Amino acid sequence: MTIQASLARLADMFAYPLRHSHYVELVNPLWTTHKLMARVISVQQETDDSRTLTLRPGTGWRSHRPGQFVRLGVPIDGQRHTRTYSISSAPNREDGCITVTVKAVPGGRVSQHLVQQVQVGEYLPLGEPQGEFVLPESMPVRPLFITAGSGITPIMSMLRNYVQELEVIPDSVHLHYAPHPREAIFGSELAALAASQPHYKLQHIYTREGGAHFNAAQLEAVCPDWRAREVWACGPASLLEAVEAHWHAAGLDHQLHVERFHAPIAISTEAATAGRVRFAASATEAASDGVSNLLRIAEDAGLNPKHGCRMGICHGCDTKLVSGSVRDLRNGTLIAEPGDTVQVCVCAAVGDVELAL
Ligand code: FES
C-alpha cells in the first residue's frame, strides 16, 4: 500500500461514517475520490442553439479515446439529471481539459439548460469515458466519415487528435450534413482543416439550401471508392438507417461503425403507463412517465447503476425484475415474470414496478 493510500485509510477512520473525500469535496470538488467531478472552465457559443463547454475533470479522470462519450450530471432545480455527450476535444490536451459540445434539443430540458444556463465555475458530476465508436489504435485506416448536426462531435475529436498527434490527417473523406451553413457546428474549423490538410476531403451538404439527404448517387459522386473505406457515421436516426441499409445491401456491414444518440425505439409511446419505480437494493423510489428508460430514471434519482453501451448491446446494465412489468423499448416485448432479467437502458416501466437494483 502506498503512503498516500495509507494516509487516506487513516483519514477515513476519523471521517467515519463518511470518507475523508467527502470533506475534501467541501474544499475543492475536483479533489474528491469518491466521485468524479468536473469544473466548467469556459463556454463558447458554436451556433445559435449549440455551445461547447470546456471542463476540467477532477481526480480519477482517465483520458478518453477519440470518439468516446461521457456521462454528465446536470443539476436543475435541485434534481440531478444525467445525459451522455460525445467528447469533442482530442485526448491529452496540454491544459488537461476536455470539451463537450451540446445542441439544444427542442423541449429538451437538460440540453437547453447546458446551452443557455450553465455558468463558468459550476461543478458537474462526470462519468468515465465510454464507447466503442473509436478508430483502431494501431492499424492505419482510410476513413469515410458521415455526420449530421451534432453527430460531428465524436468525429471532431478524431480529426483534432490526428492534427495533435500526427499533424497530418490521413486519406479521409467526410460528408457532413447541416440545414444551413450558420447551423453547421465547427463549420469554419472543418473548412480550415479541408484547406490546410491535403488528404482530408470535406463535402458540406446543406439540406435546406437545395442539398439532398444521403443517397447512393451522392455518395458515388463524393467518394467513388467508398467500398474500400471503413466508415464512421454519427447523426440522427434517419441518416443512420439510410447508411446502414446502403452498406447492408452492398454486403459491407462489417466496414461500418455507427454511433447513435439513442437506442432505436420501435414502440409507440402513446400507450405508455406512468407509475412509480422502486429500486429495492438502493431503497429509492422515483416517478416514471412510462416512456423514459429505467437507467435514466435511476440516474436522475441519484443512483449510479452499472452500465456500458446504453444501447441494449452489452448487458452491462442487467438487473432482475422483482414485481410489476417493464417493456423493451426496442421491440415492445413485455417482461412481467419476477426474476426475469431487465436491461434497464432499453426498458421502460409499465405502471408501478420494482427492480432489484
Ligand atoms: S448498458 Fe449495455 S445493455 Fe444496457
TrEMBL record:
Lineage: Bacteria, Pseudomonadati, Pseudomonadota, Betaproteobacteria, Burkholderiales
Family: In the N-terminal section; belongs to the FAD-binding oxidoreductase type 6 family.
One GO MF term attached to the UniProt entry: metal ion binding
Required co-factors: FAD
Record bears the keyword Heme: no
UniProt entry tagged with the keyword Metal-binding: yes
Species of the source: Duganella fentianensis
Record InterPro entries: 2Fe-2S_ferredoxin-like_sf, 2Fe-2S_ferredoxin-type, Beta-grasp_dom_sf, Cbr1-like_FAD-bd_dom, FAD-bd_FR_type, FNR_nucleotide-bd, MRET, OxRdtase_FAD/NAD-bd
Protein name: 2Fe-2S iron-sulfur cluster binding domain-containing protein
Domain (FAD-binding FR-type) ranges: 33-136
Matches recorded under CDD domains: fer2 (cd00207), FNR_iron_sulfur_binding_2 (cd06216)
Keyword terms of this UniProt record: 2Fe-2S, FAD, Flavoprotein, Iron, Iron-sulfur, Metal-binding, Oxidoreductase
